[in-house]
Task: structure prediction
Amino acid sequence: AQSVTQLDSQVPVFEEAPVELRCNYSSSVSVYLFWYVQYPNQGLQLLLKYLSGSTLVKGINGFEAEFNKSQTSFHLRKPSVHISDTAEYFCAVVLNRDDKIIFGKGTRLHILP
Amino acid sequence: DAGVTQSPTHLIKTRGQQVTLRCSPKSGHDTVSWYQQALGQGPQFIFQYYEEEERQRGNFPDRFSGHQFPNYSSELNVNALLLGDSALYLCASSFSRSGNTIYFGEGSWLTVV
Result:
């Protein structure tokens, strides 16, 4: 069975500082990897996805993530955060097309002024 | 082009009652999935509908049922509500042949008292 572990439940970071949100997954077969963002009292918005090809994936709002197959990781990074990045971030995997999405428990990004 | 729309946005029910939540997929999408997101948790897959049939189901009791209509819209029904059913219910839609472009609605907040 597939699973997703987000290693930090909360990450505080000063505005304009870099941030990394960690995600590890477990699967015996190839998966597709995603990061979603959830702003307060809103639904989920896709930040970026890895399906195949280049292991460095760029997404919206200046975020990027790197797929590391040997470490089964898909960490999310941003070089300089803004107060508007305050949100919950979810790492997720999908086994194949149209399959169910398995989410991690989320990491709350807290931007300090 | 409207995205995924859900109704109602908020509702309060009493234990033992029944609730119906509705979802209209993004235009052109034919697959609808439902997720439950409890407070402080990642979304959990409930079930997925395609061609008016339940194609996949997560680990949820039979009290949770659904339906997909010929216009691809969908309903989620929960019977005999429990306090633990209080959550944000998210609808996601996709097109079966596009592969992994999944869009989420804003969700329906259900409070069971």
Summary: The longest strand of chain B covers residues 87-94. Chain B has a mean pLDDT of 93. Chain B has no helices and eleven strands.
